[in-house]
Amino acid sequence: MYMINKFSCFICLILLFKCIMAFAQESTAIMGKVIDQNGYEVPYAAVGILQKNIGTTSTEDGTFYFRVTNNELEDNLTISSLGFSNFSIKIKDFLKLEKKEVVLKEQATNLSEVIVNSVDFYVKNALKNLRNNTVSKNHQLNILYRRWSVEDNLCRFFIEHSINAIDRGPSSYLVKFSINHARASADYRFVKTEQDIHALKYMEYNNPLRQGIDLKSYKWQKTENSTYDNEDVIIAKGVIENKETLSLYIGMDTYKIYKLEVSKIPKQGKSIISTYIYKKNNKGKLYLSYHQREWKGSGTLSENVKRVMMSNGKTPPKHIPIAFRHEVYVLNIEENKSYFDTGDISYNMDMTKYTTSYDHSYWEKLSIPPNTRFYNKNIGELVNLYGVSLENQFKYSNIRQ
Q: What is the pLDDT of residue 358?
């Protein structure tokens, strides 16, 4: 009897410990919207608890969503964006707000129209200090990678990967990456263009900071001024013989590059427009926060599709417009190597070639950013093709666990 009671007490202690752990891990959703003083959305703002590297990036609609545990309720929620003063409020006070809208105040720059140093000077120093200004040691990025496939100006396929990638910052290349989870819509494409490598690698290769910028190849000029985190920012625009434009948002005191935009002029019917946004960790070092890219080109119909069109009395075109639209959110950064988890290293191939099982519960728990107009437009086109909801497309188009 004594042994039974002793065993029962042991079981109770285990259950009590599990309850305490579960309570400690209980999370709270932090969601809201970032607007300016005129009520307009503020896109791509850094939102989170800076000291703990917890947070997200606001969407193009200014909305944001991430989760915190009870341990973070006393911490400060900080929001920063180019052109605005920083905003800070305790998490517990933010949760009490009836309307979860954060109004950022515009911050006037102190720069005069005449800048003592040339634009080339700031670009040169930004590139020189790139490694020192960014998280340049191995760190793990938890990435949400989205790709939409567009054919004949209509979105016909969507694929989404949750990725762990080991990075060394924009002055280097990714060390390795692995696909944790994947899900895809029904495939309504008729050209079915594939990428030779994973889209994540193209994100790398299209970033001029990783490629190395030949300063002398560009003609530089200042386009405008801005601010970020109480620092004056100069926007330097470089042009290469009307073939490519590159805009760098450079802090004038630290030479940090907070944002860059690339536009490659069409070559053989192809063009690329890219945006890369960086935010600070708890030590003030920059790491990738958000990326958006669109590649446009043309495709050729297969013989089967041509025959179907001809049988319906239609003349097949020689080429049709195609595009890939990419959107990348960095959901988390981990700098402690002991917590790195890249799983099985992924082979480098098109996103559709991975056979990771679809785990509905995983995607439900993931801190996915709120849907935006851009997201809803693409998904709306997919859903309207055959009247099948995206959730049902996920359910029947993926290998399930």
A: 93
